[in-house]
Amino acid sequence: MNFLEEKTKLHELVDTFAILADEMKLHEQAQLFTEHGILESHSADGQVFTFQGREKIEKSCTDFMNLFEIHFHNNGQAVFEIQDENHATGTAYNITVLIGENENHENIMTTNGIVYHDQYQKINGQWFISKRESNFLWTKSEKYGE
């Protein structure tokens, strides 16, 4: 097994997840999870939301992303550990900038600092996310365009 090649594939998986979010291709994004994959979201205020299976993951991401008109995900550093031919783990950092209208019709920009703790599984030669723990470490909201 070529560890460098496998880590590159995992990095591409994490980057593709972010790009599909920005493009609002949330059905395709959900397909990056295993069939029974888990998305666990930890908010900055301590709330935890868990979604299992591609359909529920897609719905949760769609419901959230539809709150905003502009989406921008920027991945930073990421490290991956290959456990065996078909299993790996990873930690990836991400900054998101989301802009949408609030109830007062003001444009609000919400910036999030997120750390993903992932588990990956290779199926038929392709890496998938089997579990993603999204940790929203901080969130900042402010008026946009003034």
From TrEMBL:
Domain of life of the organism encoding this protein: Bacteria
Organism the protein comes from: Catenisphaera adipataccumulans
Listed name of the protein: SnoaL-like domain-containing protein
Domain SnoaL-like: 4-132
